[in-house]
Amino acid sequence: MNGWAPAAVVREGRPGEGLRVAVAGAAHWHLPRHAAHLREAGVTFCGVADRDAAIAARWARELDCPALPDAAAIIETARPDLVLALGRVADMAAQATVLLEAGLPLLAEKPLGRSAAEVEPLAALAAARRSWVAVALVQRYDPLWSLLDDLRDTGRLGSVTHLHVRIINGPPQRYVAWGAGWMLDPSTAGGGALLNLGIHGIDYVRHLVGPDEPVRVCGAAVSRRTHRLPIEEFGAALLASGSGMIGTIEAGYTYPDSAAGMTRSGDNEVRLGAAQAYIVARGAEVRVTTPAGEEAHPHLRAGDRYRDWIFDSLARLRTGAPPAAGMDDCLAALRLLDRAYDLAGEPRER
Q1: pLDDT in tens, 299-328
Q2: pLDDT score of 260
Q3: 197 within 8 A of 167, measured Cβ to Cβ
Q4: Which residues have a Cβ under 8 Å from the Cβ of 245 and sit 6 or more positions away?
Q5: pLDDT number for residue 167
Q6: How, if at all, do strands 106-108 and 133-135 pair?
Q7: Which of 41, 92, 166, 287 is the most buried (most CB within 10 A)?
Q8: Nearest to 339 by CA among 231, 245, 242, 198
Q9: How much of the chain exceeds pLDDT 70, in percent?
Q10: What is the rounded distance in angstroms from the CA atom of residue 2 to the CA atom of residue 304?
């Protein structure tokens, strides 16, 4: 990921000349932004499917391509080079199974299932077929991620003692306004803020710890106090690595601005304490304090991570490189989230 520069990505060409991309599961609030970035990249939309025929028809008109009933129809009629796989969380694993069995590469929204139990067979299938699946763990495209890697690789960070990640976006009712009311039902969404947003914080912790060091969840709690909905509006988890790094995750739908998390930022913060640096990233601003003094990076995090994910993933697919985040990364985060929900005393769809 070091050196990722979205301006350097070559576009796919004019519409009609680029990759043929189909959309599976159009009833997802991120489709508008994904579609805009794919259009910018010059892909050709060749089909859009959803279990709700009206949603598929609306997006078919928007993307100027056929409306289809499901993933099987995409395989039979659309002839895509790549599938953008979204939809209800409860449908993601089964939908992706059909697409992977057909040998199609995927741009996949997280979390790919309501629990690790749903994603484990999918990950096994992807591994057996050597499938190419880029999962939208988009915090990996936060410039702070690359800054931390650079500090670590050049010996200016030292061992990390603690990491705190807070992602607080707008109220849960915004999903209804965006045509994704299924996000308020645990049976279709899998969970609330902890699953939907907390997965990014857990991915941050896992990256800093490294792939070979175990991470456990020491405690967790969730709340429904404000909105009184079946899904949690706030969740917090405490993690620890085998060597003693502590990670704290806060995820919430408690910011009063309904656009927060889509077109505007809510309350988003990363704090990290290490042997040779203390880092605070709040909004777009990053401050790095070292024994030599303080460095300010006032606009470091002002980019669009979803755009970067789309463009980088297309570039990786074109060259045969693996995605920045794949199925195994998603599954590892889900296993920790399952444990967090268990410790919070939360019954969930499994």
Answers
A1: 888 788 999 999 999 999 989 999 999 999
A2: 63
A3: yes
A4: 159, 160, 161, 162, 163, 205, 208, 209
A5: 96
A6: parallel
A7: 92
A8: 198
A9: 94
A10: 17
Residue 109 is encoded by which pair of tokens?
Answer: 């929204």
Residue 4, number of CB atoms within 10 A of its CB: 17
Provide the token pair at 121: 């067979």
The structure tokens 């300010």 sit at 296
pLDDT in the model for residue 157? 96
DSSP string, 39-84: HHHT-EEEEEE-SSHHHHHHHHHHHTS-EESSHHHIIIII--SEEE
Strand order in the sheet with 278-282: 215-223, 234-241, 246-252, 160-168, 267-274, 278-282, 285-290, 293-297
Instruction: Give the whole-angstrom CA distance, residue 41 versus residue 13.
Output: 7
Rounded CA separation 277/289 (Å): 6
The CATH 3.30.360.10 portion of the chain extends over 141-302+328-343
Place of tokens 């085998």: 242
CATH topology of domain 6-137: Rossmann fold (3.40.50)
Q: In this structure, is the dihedral angle defined by the CA atoms of residues 206, 204, 4 and 144, taken in order, positive or negative?
A: negative
141-302+328-343 topology per CATH: Dihydrodipicolinate Reductase; domain 2 (3.30.360)
Phi, psi angles (nearest 5°) of residue 71 = -65, -35
Length of the chain: 350
Q: Which pLDDT does position 5 carry in this prediction?
A: 38
